[in-house]
Description:
8-stranded antiparallel sheet
Amino acid sequence: MASVIAEIDDKMKRFLQAQHLFFVATAASSLDGHVNVSPKGHDTFRIVGPKTVAYLDLTGSGVETIAHLRDNGRITFMFCAFEGPPRIVRLQGRGRVIEQADPEFPDWRKRFPEHDGVRSVIVVELDRLSDSCGYAVPLMSYSGERTQMQAWLDHKGPDGIASYQASHNVSVDGLPGLSSLA
């Protein structure tokens, strides 16, 4: 059975920190807008407080999460146990985008390991935390991080990454992404 939890306690914190993969879901406000679900990894998730989390947003093929957060702020994280006891945790709340040009960016950025291709830090104030059984989630073993993203970033170089981010700064619904690139 699913249960609602008041805040991130020690047990949930251990579970969340042990996961190598999480998913982020957002949606545009428009009724004909799209829902976006993105997988995240590379040690980019942090628990900031009992009802606050953040993740390091890396350059990707689109800018949906950033655009949707600017549109309405709604965001859901989902963590699944692929190893060990079955469990699914959903964290729902309101997020904000902290761009590299924002004065508070350096303080947020230092919470994460070094990564190339950083676009922003997403900070979320949670208003609903829940967990459920996860009985239907398959067992899978973690075998490491993929190397293709770093190889792509190395090939592009800093100027190429900046150009790529600027040319991919509008969501599929036509919503703006990073304000510093608009």
